Amino acid sequence: VNCSTPGNFFHVLRRQILLPFRKPLIIFTPKSLLRHPEARSSFDEMLPGTHFQRVIPEDGPAAQNPENVKRLLFCTGKVYYDLTRERKARDMVGQVAITRIEQLSPFPFDLLLKEVQKYPNAELAWCQE
């Protein structure tokens, strides 16, 4: 996994402990993300009934008008915050959607297919540090 929010990091550790069997958990999330000013989660994201999100979809203006999105970026981890800062600086908030992939293995093909179908006019791109 490569978590981009503290809430998701909490859930992946919780999920690992609650599994009825043991398997390795490989976490690519850097410790510097814990101090990143934009990487925040409310306690509502860690209450009972919440869970680990394998994919975190775009929830900003681009998601409100998916037909206007020209590019759909897939990323993982800390680079998301760099991408959102650059997207805002270039005034492309409504034209570029960013989807965060939190779980790399097994790869969430089912959830990514839904994201791709949501933005029919978008060019797909992968971005990493």
From TrEMBL:
Which GO MF terms are attached to this record?
A: metal ion binding; oxoglutarate dehydrogenase (succinyl-transferring) activity; thiamine pyrophosphate binding
Q: Name one GO cellular component term.
A: mitochondrion
InterPro entries the record matches: 2oxoglutarate_DH_E1, KGD_C_sf, ODO-1/KGD_C, THDP-binding
EC number in record: 1.2.4.2
Q: What class of enzyme is it?
A: oxidoreductase
This protein's source sits in the domain of life called Eukaryota
Q: Which reaction does it catalyse?
A: N(6)-[(R)-lipoyl]-L-lysyl-[protein] + 2-oxoglutarate + H(+) = N(6)-[(R)-S(8)-succinyldihydrolipoyl]-L-lysyl-[protein] + CO2
Cofactor(s) essential for the protein:
Mg(2+); thiamine diphosphate
Q: What Pfam families does its record include?
A: OxoGdeHyase_C
Q: Which residues form the 2-oxoglutarate dehydrogenase E1 component/KDG C-terminal domain?
A: 40-129
Protein name as annotated: oxoglutarate dehydrogenase (succinyl-transferring)
Organism in which the protein naturally occurs: Macaca fascicularis (Crab-eating macaque)
